[in-house]
Amino acid sequence: METGASPAYHRSNVPWVRRLDALWFSHVWLALGASAQRWWLGEVGPSTDWAGIVGSAAAVIAGYGYLRIVRASEPDPIPSDHIRWVRGHRGAMMVLVGLSAASAAILFWGQHLVFGKWSWLVLALCVVYLLPLRNATGSSLGLREVPGIKVIVVALAWTFITSGITDREPWGYHMEMNAWMAVLQFGFFLAMAIAFDIGDLRYDRPGLRTVPQLLGSRGAKVLALLFLLPWVGFLLMMLLLSYHPIEPGWRKPGWDMGLLLPLMGIAIIGVVIARTNPQRPHWYFAVLLDGLLLLVPLLAWLGGRL
Q: SS3 of 59, please?
């Protein structure tokens, strides 16, 4: 779940490997993670249908692609392979972003905002974050330039995409559960955003004052791991409560693999975040960290079939 530039890496000379660059750099890989997260949250939180799942993926491609096009258009762009790739495929990216934005609008039409008017505040923050404001030298301005706010806006946007839109009218006690799911997701995406900011240390200007710049890599990783604890606590509590059957004789006491495997997935994510540092190669961020968005939903799906 990238928040900025991708660290440089040595490009492969193997043609089929290089062709995979389009998967990471066009944000399709990231979009697959968004759709998987939305499916999983539909199982444990606000319900969703295929339109909500596919719409989440389209919204991620549109938002990240647009932001990357803006960054690549700066007179002095960040010297990363990702930005260079976007500059070389600007026309294709503009078409992809336009089609994705239109698809997201169509797919989300008729869906419901889980948190009503509060959702518009998040949407407004995302719009301001994406606006291509520029100063006299042509460099981009915007919310991402405000010290410390980048990870918050990114986490709010991902929380909205994965748990803020539903195919049913929210009501009654479901709202309390939906709120808890949003809190859990917000913490999870904060942790992921901080991990990516650690990778961005080599590119971010000191004036941005990101979390790793303020706390150092070690302190940032500790904070990111703390933000994973709410999901750990929730899954552990549900796992313990589900050990015994609701009704005597229904089944033997046992661990619910649909909860145990996702809990193990969160633990794996914690290990990957703990091992993050600015010297990690490109694949560690664009392939592994982004791919972790798929891990917990896949483990939940597998656990439900065991």
A: helix
pTM: 0.85
Name the token pair of 226.
């703390």
The pLDDT score that the predictor gives to residue 2 is 58
Residues of the chain with pLDDT under 70: 1-19, 76, 132-148, 171-173, 203-208, 245-251, 253
Alpha-carbon distances, residue 265 vs 224, 228, 246, 260 (angstroms): 16, 11, 26, 9
CA distances from 88 to 79, 125, 134, 255, 277 (A): 13, 30, 22, 51, 28
C-alpha–C-alpha distance, residues 167 and 174, integer Å: 13
Q: What is the DSSP string of 231-277?
A: HHHHHHHHHHHTSS-SSTTSS-----HHHHHHHHHHHHHHHHHHT--
Domain boundaries, the chain: 15-303
Query: Helices H, strands E: what count in the chain?
Result: 13, 2
Q: How high is the pLDDT of residue 12?
A: 47
> Rounded to whole angstroms, how far apart are CA atoms 304 and 302?
5
Could you give the CA distance from residue 104 to residue 123 in angstroms, rounded to a whole number? Answer: 14
Strand-pair category, 165-166 with 112-113? antiparallel
> In this structure, which amino acid lies at residue 128?
V
Q: Terminus-to-terminus CA distance in the chain, angstroms?
A: 29
- Contact by Cβ (8 Å): 64, 2: yes
